Structures are given as C-alpha cells and as structure tokens.
C-alpha cells in the first residue's frame, strides 16, 4: 500500500509516496523551500506544490515542527511563523489540497515512529529517544515501543538557553563550528542532560546530520546509553507521516 507523506521543516518542505510495506519512499522525494515568513498560507502553498508534483489524489500525512493535538491543531510554532498557533492544520491543508484527507503529526514523532518500525529502533524495548537535529531539535520518546507524543525536548534549558539554540544543526552552521567541536561542546552536554532526566537505553540521532554521523558520533563520550544514527535518515519524517495517515 502507498500513502503520501510530507515533512515540513524550517528550511524545506519535502514529500513523496511511501511504500508502507517496505517503510521506504516509493518514488524520489520532491522538495521546495520553506517560505519566510513561514505563515500557514505560505507553507500550505508549499505542501500543495509537493503533492501536485506527483499528481497525488489519495490520503496525505503531514508533519509539523511543533506540538500537534488531535491530528489537527497546532499548539506551538518555534521555527515557523507564530500565526500557526491554534490553526486547524488538517482543515487548512485539506482545503488547499482540494479536499484530500489530511492527517497532521509532530515531525519528530513521525520520524520516531518510522525508526521504531522500520529503522534503528525496530524491536527495541525499554526507553528509546529519537532526536532529530536540523533547524531545531525534535524529540520522540518511546517506552516499550509506545510513543509519548509531543515531548519537544529541544526546548529544554541548556546553559541558560533553549537547547536547540545551542545544539541544533543550524546552531553548528550559524557559529561555523567543526563537527568535532559541535559534538564535544554542544551535543554531548545536551545528551547528558536528557539522559539525566530519562535514563534511556538508546538514543537514535536523526535529521539531516544522520547522513554524516561518522563525523560527530565518535566524538561523543561519557553517555551511558547506546547512541546510533537513524537508518531512515532524513526520510523518516515522510515515512512516519504516511504511516500516521494510513492509521487514520
């Protein structure tokens, strides 16, 4: 079975049909830039461009970089425009897509569900935390395979700042840090803080940086939990969005 998945990020909106039997993209994904400011109307136009690129006419799952309740309502909007808050994204996107059925889910939750079913977390029990490093830091927490939704651990305080302002991939780029410096002085401290709070057995590191895990993971020491890169890499959100849409 194929369902369409769209992943809305702070820098790009990407999507593709997903083969839910394999947990992988059925076609090469299409990406457009996230508009700035990332208003509901502007982002909805971007989602429509991605879906229209494939001529898709079935259900669509969409991730959002913030808290999403009831598969529809946006509660936070850290890396997009504040006008998203309290927006019914399911109605907005459904109307923009000509009435197609739409399901909306937190972006990191979607990536986590995909990794737990088809990737690095498959078959793992205990506490598993998936962290996506990109424009911000997304999180998905699982206990014996069951998701605790909308955890938003990227907004924990770290060194007096929002953690994602210190340890995200964007922070590394903005401050021109080497991979080693970022790993040792930013990511390690963040993981240590999350580990102190949740004592997970496994961290799965996702987002765009997962493609380059060899450049930074070997430099992270002193964490008791196992740390592995996401196997679905930056496609995890698309796959998870499609899985959520199929479930609805």
TrEMBL record:
Organism superkingdom: Bacteria
Listed name of the protein: ROK family protein
Coiled-coil annotated spans: none
Pfam families: ROK (PF00480)
Classification via SUPFAM superfamilies: Actin-like ATPase domain
NCBIfam families (alphabetical): PolPhglucPhase
Organism taxonomic ancestry: Bacteria, Bacillati, Actinomycetota, Actinomycetes, Kitasatosporales
InterPro entries: ATPase_NBD (IPR043129), ROK (IPR000600)
Family: Belongs to the ROK (NagC/XylR) family.
